[in-house]
Amino acid sequence: MIGRAAALLYGLASYFIFSLSFGYTPAFLGNFLVPKTIDVGPDSPPAHAILINTILLGLFAVQHSVMARPGFKRWWTQIVPKSVERSTYVLLASLALALLYWQWRPIAGTVWEISNPVGRMAMHALFALGWIIVLLSTFMINHFDLFGLRQVWLRVRGAQYSEVSFVARGFYKFVRHPIMLGFLIAFWSTPDMTMGHLLFAIATTGYIFIGIFFEERDLAAAHGRSFQQYRREVPMILPLSKSKPGPERAVSPR
Predict the structure, then answer these.
(1) What does each C-alpha distance from 147 to 88, 129, 144, 152 come to in angstroms?
(2) Which of 61, 95, 243, 251 could pair with 227 in a Cys bridge, judged by C-beta atoms 3.0 to 4.6 Å apart?
């Protein structure tokens, strides 16, 4: 029981830290409410800032991608209990994000600046829409399994973990990766695009598509025909017309 309680507390703490880092991200990118943002921070020579920011983005990408691979999970769960594997992944990803926010160096230079009030309002609306899509999409699969809470709760109950069945509901009927679509909308929707923000948007966009490639390769290997059928029916990112998906697919779009 002590081990089960410890796993639950660990999972809750990891989720709390994730919530703080996730909640900080819109403020960081939107330059509001928080003192340190993508365009507000210590001055550095451009070359120095680019180097530091690229390293920070790379650290997050490596941690986030490598720890999500099935081969790494098989090795990692020989060290940490399976019930807290997802919580540990979430915790380390959140800490990598926190490090990025803390050490990020703004890069001056205007790429575009929208002065028209209607245009600025439209960009802010798109920015908010992107984050809404991200958050809602997590609940259209299983938010609590995605962030490790279901795993530790099952451990407390002494129940065996089982994979969550994926139902193509909501946004998942129109795109295979609505979470990533939401991120792309949020990362690029700004009325004031600086060089620092552009670096962030380009790097994260590249990482998103690389991550999708590896994720879909893993899903195809794990779920075979069911995932291949889902991939034929539903577009990857843009909600372009394809044949309507069936109600269920034995895949997990994480």
Answers:
(1) 9, 22, 5, 10
(2) 251
